[in-house]
Amino acid sequence: MGENILVIEDDAAFREMLVEALTAKGFETQCAGSVEEGLQRLGEAPFDLVLTDVMLPGKSGIEAISLIRDMAPATDVIVMTGYSTREKALEAVRRGAYDFFSKPFSLTELEIVIRRAVERRGLRAELASLRTRLRTARGAPAIVGQSEGMRRVVELIHRVAGLDTTVLVTGESGTGKEVVSDAVHALSKRATGPFVKVNCAAIPENLLESELFGHEKGAFTGALALKKGKFELAQGGSLMLDELGDMPLFLQPKLLRAVEQKQIERVGGARPIDIDIRIIAATNQELPQLVAEKKFRADLYYRLSVAVIRIPPLRERKEDLPLLVEHFLSRINVKLGLDLRGVTREAMGLLYAHDWPGNVRQLANVLERAAIMSTGEVLEAEHFRDAFQARPRAAGQGDCLPGAAEAGGGHVASLRQTLEDVERSMIESALAKKDGVQKDAAALLGISPKNLWNKLQKHGIDPARFSGQVA
Questions:
Q1: Are 232 and 276 in contact (CB under 8 A)?
Q2: What is the number of other CB atoms lying within 10 angstroms of the CB of residue 417?
Q3: What's the CA gap between 245 and 289, in Å, rounded?
């Protein structure tokens, strides 16, 4: 595999056993007997992962975490100790450790965690590469996500950006339609031109026509001077029509003419004005349904939906949560002047259990709120509970956190119940993807078939009911 691991352990026999076992698994492994020696090794060569004991001569493994992260920020740290207490575990995580093990532990378990840490490192490298590709000289924004749905979004952005055609971006509120629209413009041939944005739902109907198309002097009471509209201001560039589904019917014929004939007329004007722009429309509404209800013109819909980019809601791409959390925490650190390193496993369990009706925008807000509540370097489960309790409930809608008590209106589930529900959901998802084959599902989950069998008994899951399903 080629991953480099540094083992810091003062027990020579145990250290040699670890080095031998990890080397046999294909890892490039070096060792040190103290934190000072380990830091010296770290200064001589890069390592993907440091595996350190807590009780060491001189500096402790807990003290080493901050020193290692300062010297090599991209290197993950796993802490192991025979003196296990919850306080030591939390302290290790707070200081930035990726995981924590108590001796004695299974080498198989250790290998799984190491490989997950390596995979996370690979995802971060791939994400950085994706950001680099999107942030071209034209300044495209980062699209965060490695799920299948987001890969399709990125692929479509690259496919349509260079084509001078209209683009329709769809998705629920908070999914990132503006970010995708920014990327389409930034990667297009019009990137050096203006990018003008209009929120059709935020402007009163009686003002929207003038805002879009402009007006001549004296066109109506208060029109004291000629005003160019957004179409003219976007000449040579792109115009984003956000919340397109809220555009009033009486304006839609003028928009259709602008799209088809590349011409507009100012309010009160007598001559057409040629325009050279690209239109990027965005909506959180189902335009085909609006067409069926005669609230949106069919011909305009067909003309605008030449290239459609659908952004999946966050609940359909929860595998992107770790990357999104890392992305938003880096922004929060800059905004608030903090030094947050991540979230605990329990906190991530709460994030996975939530349905995110507000999508990525809600996630960003929840993380910022938790950051304000936190006094350490790592966000814990308790920092998120208030945010989830405070969210509104739709009529007839159950709590988004699995197992939440209905009595009292909005109590959060116990952490144990929440994590068990997350575990059950992941197992059922793996079984569905692998057609009920337990061996394949176990491999997908990164656990042994025996471990999976025990969990199936624990949750009362019958793998046979997933046979023949299409994930």
A1: no
A2: 16
A3: 10
Q: Write out the H or E segment, with its range, that includes residue 197.
A: strand 195-199
Round to whole Å and give the CA distance between 344 and 70. Answer: 20
Sequence letter at residue 329: L
φ/ψ of 103, rounded to 5, equals: -80, 145
Q: Is residue 132 part of a domain?
A: no
Do 105 and 226 belong to one domain? Answer: no
Alpha helix locations (H) across 221-270?
230-233, 252-261
pLDDT band at 86 (very low <50, low <70, confident <90, very high): low
The string of pLDDT tens digits covering residues 98-124 is 877 777 777 787 888 888 887 777 766
pLDDT tens column, 142-184:
789 888 899 999 999 999 999 999 999 999 999 999 999 999 9
Of 99, 127, 155, at which residue does a domain stop?
127
Q: Are 264 and 258 in contact (CB under 8 A)?
A: yes
Q: How many domains does the chain have?
A: 4
0.70 surpassed by pTM: no
CB 210 within 8 A of CB 163: no
Which contiguous run of DSSP H or E holds residue 32?
Answer: strand 28-32
The candidate with the shortest Cα–Cα distance to 304, out of 327, 272, 281, is 281
DSSP string, 257-320: HHHHHSEE--BT--S-EE---EEEEEESS-HHHHHHTTSS-HHHHHHHTTEEEEPPPGGG-GGG
Pick from 181, 201, 179: nearest CA to 190: 181
Beta bridge partners of 5: 29, 49
pLDDT tens for residues 195-219? Answer: 999 999 999 988 999 999 999 999 9
Residue 155 CB contacts under 8 Å (≥ 6 apart), including other chains: none
Question: Could you tell me where the beta strands, DSSP code E, fall in 344-433?
Answer: 378-379
d(CA 52, CA 88): 13
> DSSP per residue over 151-183, as a string?
HHHHHHHHHHHTS-S-EEEE--TTS-HHHHHHH
Assigned domain for 471 exists: no
Domain limit, last residue, from 312, 327, 352: 312
The backbone torsions φ and ψ at residue 69, rounded to the nearest 5 degrees and listed phi first, read: -70, -35
